[in-house]
């Protein structure tokens, strides 16, 4: 799980262009949207593309994404439960 | 309240018919044109679409276009619709040559670029299509099929492009710079935008259901429609009867988000409110609303809220005819305008197909074609990405508008234009950005291709703000902020941008993705930033400016179109302060492609990049830079017409020319300029700022600085001409491809 968490953080930084951040800057249980990282609805869509590309997980609508992308911990759990690659 | 404009002709091509009669028939029969994909080659067969039921070759055959001539689907559909409109209005060749043509598109020639992009880069098999790629080329090929118009412009505000083309043409008529305008838009389906909308997760896999609680997104469509609009005096002179009246229009920016509408529909509310005020009507006068109504979760709530705010609980009958045509994106404004006029003529309410379940927070759409009261005034909404919201009001032709007698011919406008003022300016280009060092120590280049010298954007934008912005967006936003800061303007009345290609880097990311990875995992960010209006809307979003917002994408005259829009609206008193920009980047791949067409890469020519912003004001300010006292654009002018313009302008101290590469005295454009302005020193700016689609903006910027600082940089004086003796009146002249001319006269204060 540790490794997956680090990998997810690296992917997020790359996909969302968080240039000045390192994986260590992202808290595992901090909210990604609103406060915390301050991500928005376009980021949800970018993360949905990332989930499909990297882990073979296909989400049907952005509302689902908002639940899954609550924090790094929630995301990592979901990915390890549902990944197809 | 503005002067009403008459509609005297219209033409339409969409999934529900190839002309007005077929369109009307489908509307009355409640027959949708949305169905399974047939012509677009894509893997996404799961999405129903509204395709025009002809192959691209069948369209070309109908238009008698020979096989050897490059053709794009957008331009062919445009020609089919324009042909109908010109015939309907009985426009003679002579009338047409005095009419302006304004067309809206975002896709342009992308249907071919997405097929041939790798060929453009790696072989010479389809080089004919390189110059068909951009929006302006598409508009010109539609226009040129019929012969020259007085001027040609391309609006590109995504899904409201055609509505804004109608507004721009109407402003030109009201201002008196033309009597007739042919306006509308054209857009074909492409893989790029099908995949782009898919990446935004707003496509419905079933027939779309606008305003239905169970709605799940939009269906894309395609098509074209054009209107011939003219002044009352012109219609009387030509002896033609109007089919409807364009009574008013509004344009406002939601200034909320790059792809989503605000929850309270602020932009939509403002544009509708403005359109009603312009038409001299109250909300209670509106008998039908043709909604933008895409069928996305977001739009239909936002638009409903805006309608509740405007109309209160008594919302007039509303429908979204996108349930018939699909969302025809840049063409939807004119396609739905034609549908509104058909509804007025035939006195019926177009249905809102697929609606079953009431939205708790939404309007209840039309379910019965029979209106409960006569249709006299209808409102047509078109909203685009970035919150580019526009509304049009059409009215029934009345006695009043048909023939008021020849006395109304006397209402000719004053030929004297009021001077405008350039109050501040900023650039980031291949010269040092946000500085005027180029005046005394310009950087001189030998290379054929130079990228802009970027500044440290962190001083202006936080990393969080800029993380999704490409280089061009940062440059455009920072030059805009600098111009606003210098002139102390927080919210300009208008933000108007010219860009030949928009954020080409993003377009290229999408083209490359389609080639390398196919239609899987396309990303939303490059898509939303590939629409040309992303620049102008970003400026409005960042500065919370809800005023007029528009984007022009018309080749080397893109900035010129933007400046013309501001000029017209200030002459009309619609706006007082406008931020006008010219923004373009040049990617290595696109540079290579344009070398293949000899557009760039010619001896001594430097390809550069442009980010320039000017603040224009109807009133002088203490530190204004110069006056703008004359403005004119023309297309394929005769030598006589050019002489006529030169005579109108009179003596000038110098002419700033758009000659690309180092000027030779024998070059055609220099000879022509010398003929028009004999014994006048000629100057150049592209030898230091380089060539780009919006370089003319830098020419205007440079000239404003020369007049303000009262000195001529030596490097800009073309050798062989005398030194200018005075620094009072300088003409900035743009000549694009020997066809498109812009005359901007600047004077010292």
What do these coordinates show?
The complex is a heterodimer of chains A (85) and B (749). By secondary structure, chain A is mainly α. Chain A contains four helices and no strands. Chain A is globular. The two termini of chain A are 15 Å apart. With 749 residues, chain B is of the alpha/beta class. The two termini of chain B are 33 Å apart. Chain A binds chain B through residues 16-20, 38, 41-42, 45-46, 48-49, 52-53, 61-62, and chain B through 199-201, 257-260, 463-464, 467-468, 520-525, 528.
Low-confidence stretches of chain B: 402-412
Mean pLDDT of chain A: 90
Number of strands of chain A: 0
CA gyration radius of chain B, whole angstroms = 24 Å
Under the CATH scheme, the architecture of the largest domain in chain B is 3-Layer(aba) Sandwich
CATH class of chain A: Mainly Alpha
For the CA atoms, what is the radius of gyration of chain A? 12 Å
Oligomeric state = heterodimer
Number of helices of chain B: 25
How many β-strand runs of chain B?
20
How would you sum up the major sheet of chain B?
A: 10 strands, mixed
Helix tally of chain A equals 4
Please describe the structure with a list of short key phrases separated by commas or semicolons:
heterodimer, A: 85 residues, mainly alpha, Non-ribosomal Peptide Synthetase Peptidyl Carrier Protein, Chain A, B: 749 residues, alpha/beta, Peroxisomal Thiolase, Chain A, domain 1, 2 domains, ten-stranded mixed β-sheet, 25 helices, globular
Topology:
The complex is a heterodimer of chains A (85) and B (749).
Chain A: H1 2-15, H2 41-55, H3 62-68, H4 72-82
Helix pairs in contact in A: 1-4
Chain B: E1 5-14, H1 20-29, H2 56-62, H3 73-88, H4 93-98, E2 100-104, H5 110-122, H6 135-144, E3 151-155, H7 161-175, E4 180-187, H8 191-199, E5 223-230, H9 232-238, E6 244-253, H10 266-279, E7 288-290, H11 297-311, E8 318-319, H12 322-325, H13 332-346, E9 377-384, E10 388-395, H14 399-402, E11 420-428, H15 463-466, H16 471-487, E12 494-498, H17 504-516, H18 524-530, H19 534-543, E13 548-552, H20 558-571, E14 577-584, H21 588-596, E15 610-617, E16 626-635, H22 639-649, E17 654-657, H23 668-676, E18 682-684, H24 686-689, H25 695-709, E19 729-736, E20 740-747
Parallel strand pairs in B: 2-3, 2-4, 7-8, 7-9, 12-13, 12-14, 17-18, 17-19
Antiparallel strand pairs in B: 1-5, 1-6, 4-5, 6-10, 9-10, 11-15, 11-16, 14-15, 16-20, 19-20
Helix pairs in contact in B: 2-3, 3-6, 5-17, 7-13, 7-20, 8-18, 10-11, 16-19, 17-18
């Amino acid at each position: 799980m540790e490794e997956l968490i680090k990998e997810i953080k690296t992917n997020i930084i790359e996909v969302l262009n968080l240039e000045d951040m390192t994986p260590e800057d992202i808290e595992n249980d901090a909210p990604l949207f609103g406060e915390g990282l301050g991500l928005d609805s376009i980021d949800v869509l970018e993360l949905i593309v990332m989930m499909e590309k990297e882990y073979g997980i296909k989400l049907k609508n952005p509302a689902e994404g908002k639940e899954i992308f609550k924090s790094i911990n929630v995301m990592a759990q979901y990915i390890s439960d549902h990944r197809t690659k | 309240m503005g002067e009403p404009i008459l509609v005297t002709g219209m033409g339409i091509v969409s999934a529900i018919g190839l002309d007005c009669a077929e369109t009307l028939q489908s509307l009355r029969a409640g027959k949708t044109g949305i169905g399974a994909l047939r012509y677009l080659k894509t893997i996404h067969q799961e999405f129903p679409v509204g395709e025009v039921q002809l192959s691209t070759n069948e369209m070309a055959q109908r238009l008698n276009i020979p096989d050897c001539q490059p053709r794009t689907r957008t331009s062919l559909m445009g020609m089919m619709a324009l042909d109908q409109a010109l015939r309907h209005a009985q426009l003679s060749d002579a009338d047409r040559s005095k009419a302006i043509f304004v067309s809206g598109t975002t896709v342009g020639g992308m249907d071919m670029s997405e097929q041939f992009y790798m060929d453009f880069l790696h072989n010479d098999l389809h080089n004919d299509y390189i110059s068909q790629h951009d929006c302006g080329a598409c508009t010109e090929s539609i226009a040129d099929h019929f012969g020259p118009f007085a001027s040609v412009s391309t609006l590109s505000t995504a899904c409201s492009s055609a509505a804004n083309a109608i507004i721009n043409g109407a402003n030109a008529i009201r201002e008196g710079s033309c009597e007739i305008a042919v306006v509308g838009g054209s857009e074909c389906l492409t893989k790029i935008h099908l995949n782009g909308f898919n990446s935004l997760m707003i496509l419905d896999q079933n027939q779309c259901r606008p305003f239905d609680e169970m709605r799940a997104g939009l269906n894309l469509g395609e098509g074209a429609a054009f209107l011939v609009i003219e002044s009352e005096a012109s219609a009387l002179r030509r002896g033609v009867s109007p089919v409807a009246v364009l009574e008013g229009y509004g344009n406002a920016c939601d200034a909320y988000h790059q792809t989503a509408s605000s929850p309270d529909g602020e932009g939509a509310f403002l544009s509708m409110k403005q359109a009603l005020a312009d038409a001299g009507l109250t909300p209670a006068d509106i008998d039908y609303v043709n909604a933008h109504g895409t069928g996305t979760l977001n739009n239909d709530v936002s638009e409903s809220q805006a309608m509740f705010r405007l109309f209160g609980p008594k919302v007039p009958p509303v429908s979204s005819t996108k349930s018939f045509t699909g969302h025809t994106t840049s063409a939807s404004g004119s396609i739905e305008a034609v549908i509104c006029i058909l509804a007025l003529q035939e006195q019926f309410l177009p249905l809102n197909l697929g609606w079953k379940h009431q939205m708790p927070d939404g309007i209840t759409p039309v379910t019965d074609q029979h209106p409960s009261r006569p249709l006299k005034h209808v409102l047509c909404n078109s909203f685009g990405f970035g919150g580019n919201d526009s509304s049009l009001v059409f009215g029934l032709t009345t006695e009043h508008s048909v023939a008021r007698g020849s006395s109304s011919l006397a209402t000719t406008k004053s030929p004297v234009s009021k001077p405008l003022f350039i109050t501040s300016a900023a650039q980031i280009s291949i010269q040092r950005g946000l500085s005027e060092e180029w005046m005394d120590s310009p950087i001189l280049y030998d290379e054929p291709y130079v990228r802009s010298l970027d500044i440290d954007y962190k001083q202006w934008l936080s990393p969080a703000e800029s993380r999704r912005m490409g280089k061009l967006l940062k440059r455009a936003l920072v030059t805009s902020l600098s111009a606003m800061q210098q002139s102390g303007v927080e919210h300009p009345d208008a933000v108007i941008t010219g860009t030949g290609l928009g954020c080409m880097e993003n377009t290229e990311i999408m083209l490359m993705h389609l080639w390398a990875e196919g239609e899987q995992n396309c990303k939303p960010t490059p898509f939303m930033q590939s629409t040309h209006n992303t620049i102008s809307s970003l400026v409005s979003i960042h500065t919370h400016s809800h005023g007029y917002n528009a984007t022009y994408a018309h080749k080397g005259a893109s900035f010129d179109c933007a400046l013309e829009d501001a000029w017209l609206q200030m002459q009309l008193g619609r706006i007082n302060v406008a931020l006008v920009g010219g923004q373009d980047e040049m990617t290595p791949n696109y540079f290579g492609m344009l070398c293949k067409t000899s557009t760039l890469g010619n001896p001594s020519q430097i390809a550069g990049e442009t980010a320039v912003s000017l603040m224009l004001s109807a009133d002088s300010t203490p530190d204004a830079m110069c006056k703008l006292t004359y403005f004119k654009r023309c297309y394929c002018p005769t030598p006589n017409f050019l002489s006529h313009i030169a005579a109108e302008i009179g003596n000038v101290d110098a002419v700033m020319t758009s000659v690309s590469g180092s000027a030779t005295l024998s070059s055609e454009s220099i000879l022509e300029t010398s003929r028009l302005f004999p014994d006048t020193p000629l100057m150049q700016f592209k030898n230091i700022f380089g060539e780009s689609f919006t370089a003319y903006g830098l020419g205007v910027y440079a000239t404003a600085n020369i007049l303000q600082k009262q000195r001529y940089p030596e490097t800009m004086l073309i050798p062989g001409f005398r030194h200018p003796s005075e620094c009072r009146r300088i003409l900035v002249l743009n000549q694009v491809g020997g066809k498109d001319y812009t005359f901007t006269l600047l004077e010292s204060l």
